[in-house]
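Exam prep: given the inputs below (a chain plus copper (II) ion), describe the expected output before reading on.
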Amino acid sequence: MRYLKMTTRAVVAGVALFAAGAAWAADIEIVAPWSRATAQGATVGVGYLTIVNKGSAPDRLKSITADVATSVELHEMAMDNSVMKMRALPEGLEIKPGATVPLKPGGYHLMLMGLKQPLVQGGAVHVTLDFAKAGPITVTMPIEKLGATGPSPSGDSEPPPMGY
Ligand SMILES: [Cu+2]
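Solution:
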């Protein structure tokens, strides 16, 4: 009985998230994906999203591909001798059970390397996240305006207030 109740609740939550544009497979859910328009001539773009592990086992984001980039790297911003620097995480990113891991400005992010075309506000980037357990999950990242600091929940391009 308890199991049935929980299952129903999970399905309802899943439908609500799907309506909000989220994608999930198995125990991994991807929430609020977004990218940012690139300046003229830029060859590198970014992608942000939040990874939720609803399961009881750890998973790992192993690799990423995107339709508009020749390769995608997982990066982290970190202090290095009191200087903020980006570094690649070739081992991927572990998502512990029950964890919510945001990729956001100033932290983890996807680096779209070798852009085949500029990222234009109002368009979208399609990325496929490959997880060790959940497998590949394809996500559509709406492209927000140049300088945006977050996704726009209402679909317009106004970023939320700083620090939100
Ligand atoms: Cu980076």
